[in-house]
Amino acid sequence: MPAIPLFITDPLWSQFQALIPPVVDEHPLGCHRPRIPDRVVFDKLIQVLVLGASYEKISDTTCSATTMRRRRDEWITAGIFTALEQICLDSYDRIVGLELDDLCVDGCIVKAPCGGEIAGKSPVDRGKQGTKRSVMTDGAGIPVGVIAAPANRNDSPLLLPTLELLSRFNGHLPEQITVHLDAGYDSTKTRALLTALDCDWQISTKGEPLQAGARWVVERTNAWHTRGFKKLLINTERRATVNDAFIALANAIIIIRRLIREAWTTHRWEARPERKP
Questions:
Q1: Could you tell me the residue range of the domain that residue 8 belongs to?
Q2: In a shared domain, residues 135 and 227
Q3: What number is the average pLDDT over the span 116-132?
Q4: Same domain, residue pair 230 and 114
Q5: Among 237, 245, 240, which residue's Cα sits nearest to residue 114?
Q6: Are 199 and 179 in contact, with CB atoms under 8 Å apart?
């Protein structure tokens, strides 16, 4: 049984395959062993992302752990994961429409038992190694940007680099943007930053009962990340680039799933699943 339904992975793979650069065989005699098909490696990486298992446990006679890591690094160097995430965002914006006039930002701390470049002492896990993700979503909860940092980083300093990810839309943004934040961002510096960026804000006040407001969608997106992808629940990757690649792949899957769900009542296509996802 596939880790992700085929009506999601098949269109995802079609676009991913189109982004893979041609392989140049530099062996002087051209006598390499047959190259493992890219689709096999792609499916294995999906399993690693969803199940959170090690490469060795996912490997079998069709693909070794070394091949998974090597091919993964090739695709990261080529920028395929980031490009795939951007294509999914553009497709969703074209078909359904991103609600970029309301942005929600929140931090999410997960375990990072192997340490690495983006690991630090977690303030919510007795000082054990952890990673923080600063997640930005549109008004409907579609992930439009994620910044990963050590768990001991405060939320406020991560707000600017997170908002800077809006540059991926090449300036095609609403004239007025409202940023929804929780009480962890309740500071003069945060308000000064949003004023400088010409953004409105809704920030929960410290010391008062929980104020949900419109920012609940980013909490739901954090749940999609941690409950749907065990690799993001427990970060075992030591390199930031690999962690970012898996986040981009998870975001692409989330966006495709939401796109299919939103288009269920408005569009018809041959590969439309029998049941609403």
A1: 1-95+240-277
A2: yes
A3: 93
A4: yes
A5: 237
A6: yes
